[in-house]
Amino acid sequence: MAQVVDVVVIGAGINGASIAFNLAKKGCRSVVLLEKHIIASGGTGKSAALIRQHYSNEVLVKIAKRCRNIFEQFQEVVGGECGFVKTGYLFFVPNELADRFHANIAMQQRLGVVTGSVSREEAQSIAPSLNVDDSQVIAYEPGSGFADPYETTVSYIQRARELGVVVRQSSPVRVIRLAAGRIEGVATDKEEFATRVVVNVAGPWANDVGSMVKVKYPIQVTREQEVLLRPAQSRDCPTVTVSDMCNAIYFHPLGKELLVGRGFPKEYEEVDPDNYPEPADQQFIEDIAHRVVKRVPRMVTAMCIRGYSGLYDVTPDWHPIIGCHPEVPGFISCVGFSGHGFKLGPVVGEAVAELVLEGKARDVELELFAPDRFARGRQFTAAYGGNRA
C-alpha cells in the first residue's frame, strides 16, 4: 500500500538535500528524499566546491553572495559542518576582456559583494607563490574560498532527518504515476509513495526522471576531470583559491595538495552517467601540470597523487532549469546546474522549498530559470562564456 506523503524529492546531491531540509524547516510535514545510488554520488561528491561570487548576471550574484554567507555561518543557519575554508579568491582574466570584467566588478560591488580589482603587485602580495605577469585584470574576494561537498550534503541530510524527512539510498525511481495529467505517486523497487508533488533534482540523470512524465531537458552530461598535485615542499602549495582564465584552470589547496581542474574554454566530452571512465586521463594530467606551472612555478616538481572524473549536467546557456511544468501539475524541475550547483545549493534549496509550499520564491527570481525559457528565446548570456557564467 502506498505511503501518503506531501513531497518526494528525487536526488540526494547538495540541491536535493538542501530542498528536503528547507521543506521540513518551513513546516512541510512529510518529505521523502530518494537517491538512486548513495548520498552525493552524482556531480556533488566530486565537485571542486569553490565558493565564489564573481558572476555576470545579477540573479546569480545575489544567490552566490547569500550562499557564501550561509557557508560561513553554516553551523548557525543549518547545523553541522560544511568544511568551509576562507582562503580568499583570485580571478585572473585575459587583458582583452578588461571592459567586461570591470563592468562585472561594478555590478557586484553595487549588490554588496566584497570584491575589487587588484594590481599585479597586490595579487603577488596576497599569493607570493603565483606568477602574475600574464594578466593585468585580476579580481580578489577576501571572503571566498572552498568547502567540503560531501560533508555539506551529509550535514543537510542529517538535519533534514532530525526534522522528519525520510531518506532512502539505493532507491532508484522506476515510475512516476499520473492521474488526469497530474502527479499522483512515485514507485521504487521496494516502496510506493502517494504524493501530489515531485521535485526532480537528479542532476546527470535528470532526463531519466523527466522521461517518466514526458518532460525532456536540453541537457548534456559531460565528464569533468580533476587532479590532486602534491608539491615537493608544503610551502610551495598556494593557500588561495584561484580561477585562472588565462591558463584555463581553477585550483584550491586541499590539505597538503592542490586540487586542480580544467576551465573554459575547452572541448567537452559527453558521456553516459552510468558508464564513463572515472580515472583521469594521462594526457589530461600532463596538460594540467603544464598549465599549473605557468601560474605556480614552484609546482614544477609536484607529483600527481590522484586523478578522477565527475559529471556536469550542462544546459545550452550554462544556467540551471528551475520551475514548474504547467503541462504536468505537481512536477517541479531543479536540474542543469552546469558545474555551479554546489556553490548555489543553500539558497536554491530555500527558494525551491518556497516555490513548493507558497507557489513562488520570496527573494529569488526563479522565473528567470523557467524550463520553457529556451523555447521562448530567453537564454542567459555570460560575460566570459561557458561555465564562467
Description:
This protein is of the alpha/beta class and about 400 residues long. The chain has two domains: about 5-45 and about 150-220 and about 315-389, FAD/NAD(P)-binding domain (3-Layer(bba) Sandwich), CATH 3.50.50; about 95-145 and about 220-315, D-Amino Acid Oxidase, Chain A, domain 2 (2-Layer Sandwich). It has nine helices and 21 strands. Strands 5, 6, 7, 14, 15, 16, 17, 18 and 19 form a nine-stranded mixed sheet that branches. A six-stranded mixed sheet has the order 9-3-2-13-21-20. The chain has a four-stranded mixed sheet with strand order 1-12-11-10, with no helix packed on it. Helix 1 packs parallel to helix 6 (about 150-160). It starts with a strand and ends in a 31-residue tail after the last helix. The model has no long low-confidence stretch (mean pLDDT about 95).
Write the layout of secondary structure elements.
Elements: E1 3-4, E2 7-10, H1 14-25, E3 31-34, E4 50-51, H2 58-72, H3 74-77, E5 89-93, H4 98-110, E6 116-118, H5 120-126, E7 137-141, E8 145-146, H6 149-162, E9 166-168, E10 175-179, E11 182-187, E12 192-194, E13 198-200, H7 206-210, E14 220-230, E15 241-244, E16 249-254, E17 257-262, E18 269-270, H8 282-295, E19 303-314, E20 321-324, E21 331-335, H9 341-358
Helix pairs in contact: 1-6, 1-9, 2-9
Q: DSSP helix count?
A: 9
Major β-sheet profile: 9 strands, mixed
CATH topology of the largest domain: FAD/NAD(P)-binding domain
Q: Radius of gyration in whole Å, from Cα?
A: 21 Å
Annotation, overall tally of beta strands: 21
Shape: globular
Number of domains: 2
Helix content: 25-40%
Uncertain runs: none
CATH architecture descriptor text of the largest domain: 3-Layer(bba) Sandwich
Distance between the termini: 46 Å
Q: What is the CATH level 1 assignment of the largest domain?
A: Alpha Beta
